[in-house]
Specification:
5-stranded mixed β-sheet, 5 helices, HisK_dim/P_sf, Helix Hairpins, kinase, 16% strand, two-stranded antiparallel ribbon, transferase, elongated, 2 domains, HisK_dim/P_dom, Heat Shock Protein 90, alpha+beta
Length: 200
């Protein structure tokens, strides 16, 4: 499979995009922890030199390290969820959890374009699908929206039978290929600037 325009390559590219974004977030957490650890070492060195030790400053540093450790743990949990999505060809997944995972992992990418992501309504609907491919579909649509004319906010909403994403008035051929692969019907309403994806 040497054709880099093949849909499989596009899905690999999407997964790589999200993985790279997650790795940057983890790196940022580690950089802050390393910086704060260095400050703590400096304070301890000064204390050994006879300078007074500020308990308030130590507490501030410890709290900062703790916050970043918790943040990194959540990021790794998201990465772990993504890593296990391809475990089965088809599996049952909660739609709300999937969309929240999309928003959590895509948030850094959207903020680089000054775009906020908002999940307007949530559904406890459980669907049977290939979770990673559906995840990649939502990411691909978000990429399409941001690539054309980035809005201030992208809204994702759900009801019993549909995923709705707006504003959206264009989707790429790659996105269409994923929709076709998942056998999902969709309507691109240019007047409402919304794509309605019908879930099976």
């Amino acid at each position: 499979m040497n054709n880099l325009t093949h849909p499989l390559w596009f899905n690999i590219k999407l997964s790589g995009q999200i993985t790279a974004s997650i790795s940057h977030e983890i790196k940022n957490c580690l950089a802050i922890i390393q910086e704060q650890s260095g400050l703590l070492e400096d304070l301890l060195f000064l204390q050994k030199e006879g300078k007074p030790l500020s308990i308030e400053k130590i507490e501030e540093i410890i709290n900062s390290i703790s916050r970043q450790a918790r943040r990194a743990n959540l990021i790794v949990q998201n990465l772990n969820m993504l890593a296990h999505m391809p475990d089965q060809e088809q599996s049952s997944i909660n739609l709300n959890k999937l969309l929240n995972l999309v928003i959590s992992t895509y948030n850094r990418i959207s903020k680089m374009k000054n775009v906020d992501l908002q999940l307007k309504t949530q559904s406890d609907k459980t669907i049977i699908t290939q979770p990673l491919i559906l995840f990649n579909l939502i990411v691909s649509i978000l990429n399409d929206i941001i690539a054309k004319d980035p809005p201030k906010t992208i809204y994702i909403s759900t009801n019993e039978h549909k995923i709705n994403i707006s504003p959206c008035y264009y989707i790429s051929n790659n996105t269409k290929e994923i929709l076709k692969f998942l056998k999902l019907d969709y309507t691109l309403d240019k007047e409402k600037q919304t794509i309605f994806i019908t879930l099976t």
